[in-house]
Structure formats: structure tokens, C-alpha cells
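G., the chain you wanted modeled:
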Amino acid sequence: MATSTYPLTALARTTDPMTMLRRFLGLDAVVTAGNGIAYAAASGPLGDFLGVDSTLLLGIGVFLTLYGVGVGLLAARGRPSPLAVRAVVEANAAWAVLSMVALAVWLSPGTAGTVWIPLQAAVVGGFAALQYGALRALRG
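Predicted structure as C-alpha cells:
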């Protein structure tokens, strides 16, 4: 095993690249669907707290719930398709970047939203990096 994959094996608690990949996908699915359900179920109060339009938050919540379910189904496969995993990695990276662009250009959240948006972008970007690293470990 290459030394560059050691941090991934420590995080995933396995040296098997396929198990590592599936665990990172599964964690992504749980966090994403959980956020989606919270955003959809409590879009009014969360929108007020974050200073984000509740209708926008409801739409994002529904999308994230469905996306999280899709990632979960991918994680549940014995051997997730590398093409599908790459799509998840790219979608996560795009989400992280677009979150920051939206914060800078379009959204005007309150203090909580100004803190939350970059934090969630960092988490999603982290998932992309972990999944990409596990995919690379699987190939090499």
C-alpha cells in the first residue's frame, strides 16, 4: 500500500480499497440525506435561522434527500461502478464550489448562514476528496 493512502485507511478503518470507497460513499449518503430531510422538514425555521429563503431550502432539501438516497444505493453495491463514483465525486466538488459562488454572488444569509454555507461546502468537498482518494487506491 502506498504511503499516500495511509490517512485514508486510518479514516476508513480498513486497508481494503473497495470497503474504504463504500464506507466513504455511505457516510456521504447518510450526511447528505440527513441534511436534506432536515432542510425539507424544517425549511421555515431553518430558513429563518440561516437567513435563507425557505422555498429555496425546501427545494434543496428535496434534492439532497434524493441525491443522498442515490449515493446510498451506490454505496450498497458490492462493487460500485467507477463511472458512477466519479459522477458523485464531480457532483460533490461542483456542489462545494457552487455553494461558495452562491454565497459570494447571490445569497445574502444571516450570520448563521454565512458560517454554515462554507462549513457544509467544506464537508462536501471533503467527501469528494475522500471518495476520489479511495477510487485511486482501488485502481492502484
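The helical segments are 6-12, 17-41, 43-50, 54-76, 82-105, 111-139.

Shout if anything looks off.
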